[in-house]
Amino acid sequence: MPMLLIKNIGTLATPLGTSSRCGSDQGKIEVLHNAAVLIDGEKIAAVTANGELPEYSAYADIVDAHGALATPGLVDAHTHLVFGGWRAHEVPLKIAGASYLDILNAGGGILNTLTNTRKATEDELFERGRGFLAEMLDFGVTTVEIKSGYGLDSENELKQLRVIRRLGEACAQDIAATFLGAHAIPDEYAGNADGYIDFIIERVLPVVAEQGLADFCDVFLESSVFNVPQSRKLLLAAQKLGLPSKVHADEIDPLGGSELAGEIGAISAEHLIATRDSGIEAMAKAKTTACLLPQTSLYLNKPFARARDMILAGVPIATDFNPGSCPSLNLQLSMNLGYLRYRLFPEEVLTAVTLNAACAIGKGDSVGSIEPGKLADIVLWNADELPMLCYRMGSNQVKKVIKRGRVAVK
User: Fold this and answer.
1) CA distance 112 to 356
2) How far apart are CA 360 and CA 269, in angstroms?
3) HSE on the CB side for 60, CA within 13 Å?
């Protein structure tokens, strides 16, 4: 694979390092002008500024940025993109006043998607997921986390995880797979959440671990779903099998999900709309990354998470793409909302959707910043300066996407 030189970068903006940036460090990024990046194979070999070209540039193929802004490829750290059906019919119910849990308890919500996902074949789910990932790549997203959780039995959870693995092999993006078998209580276990958790631990988790189908284990810790003891039992069992923990926490009610995430050392706690001070303190102490999903707040007409208070825990921002509470693949819109509703500065937003998001899915060593040794995941934007990415809404500002040293979007 030949070397590639990206030259005439007007402004290069990137966080640096391999670990989440917390507190004031989240806003500390490197900004270079008239920059160039030399790529050797899939990795970044050198970064220069002020019109200087890296050594060996004469032997490289050229991409001329023509003064564009360059950032690391975006990382979407929370999605549910393998599913069957849609849930557009639920929106009028929400407008009329039905809550998320009202719809779920009536057999809609996740359980509706479960029915359609179980009906879909593996190939149908794969083709659909491949289309979603292609759209995300057009928005500048080069690394994606994907959760299961719409099968809720052994056969269909494993089917979803196999699809996620196939997507990782076939699509441009690097994929992190999360097992979310505890996403809801299926009809087969209605009124028996403890029994369903035992089923996952005894019958599904060992197969997931043995076949290497997931990188993490997650649980939906929420009213009418799973409580703290049930979630703790599942996540500790998964840890024993080598699957680090994630927690869907405090999305609707503050039941102790963020505190549990800190207690067991989860890599991330996600949603966090209703998180208490004690949860923020627990996450900060354990260095659990707080993964926030502003489009879900927008779509469900819910409050926005206390991002400024959570900066101490390191804040990434993701889409939460799913059919019920966030049917959006556009991480750029999450950036806008992080700026306008979380009140984060553009530098903090950039770190949130690159380095911190990468660390939230265990990939901070390889992606999330533009520096030698990391994968050459770079986005060139139709913008001159970083604030423009957070300021403009409704337009895809991507000019070109380089993924692992190859031009993936022209």
Assistant:
1) 33
2) 9
3) 24
CA proximity to 174, closest of 213, 137, 216, 125: 137
Q: Where are the beta strands (DSSP E) in 239-335?
A: 246-249, 268-271, 289-291
Alpha helices in 150-227, H assignment, sequence order: 154-170, 193-199, 205-210
Q: Can you tell me the mean pLDDT for 386-408?
A: 96
Separation CA 88–CA 97 (nearest Å):
15
Q: Which pLDDT does position 99 carry in this prediction?
A: 83
pLDDT digits (tens, 9 = 90+) for 125-149: 999 999 999 999 999 999 999 999 9
Q: Please write the tens of the pLDDT for every residue from 85-102.
A: 999 989 898 888 888 778
**Token couple for 332:** 């750029």
Q: Look up residue 291 and give its two tokens.
A: 């993964």
DSSP helix/strand/coil, 158: helix
For residue 159, CA distances in Å to 7, 77, 101, 237 come to: 44, 21, 26, 22
Q: Which of 373, 367, 377 is nearest to 401 (CA)?
A: 377
Q: What is the mean pLDDT of residues 172-176?
A: 98
| Backbone torsions φ then ψ of 326, nearest 5 degrees | -165, 75
H or E element, residue 62: strand 61-64
Other C-beta atoms closer than 10 Å to the C-beta of 30 total 15
- 372: tokens are 């030698």
The per-residue pLDDT for 39 is 98
Contact assessment for residue 100 and residue 93, using Cβ atoms and an 8 Å cutoff: no
- Cβ atoms of 271 and 326 within 8 Å: the answer is no
Q: Count CB neighbours of 355 within 10 A.
A: 29
